[in-house]
Amino acid sequence: MKTATFPSVRIDQQLRDAAEGVLREGETLTSLLETAMRETIQRRLAQDEFVARGLRARDSARESGTYHGASEVHAELRQRLDARRKQVQG
Known about the structure:
Order of helices and strands: HHH
Number of strands: 0
Radius of gyration: 22 Å
Number of domains: 1
């Protein structure tokens, strides 16, 4: 796969110093920027999908007229969590 480059990005010296200050052994500014960009893209895609699922759920509830109260949802989630804790803790 061919690689491409991004245009130069102007930042203030303080940000550059901060970035250089957190580099891990063997890591470069370029690899830090690439990692940050990949993680940001993944996070934004996940956020977009979360919102889309929420909107679909809203539309489905409107169409069916079936709604679930927060206390009901919290109780179900609490049961799932308790069951999983028992399973993990033995």
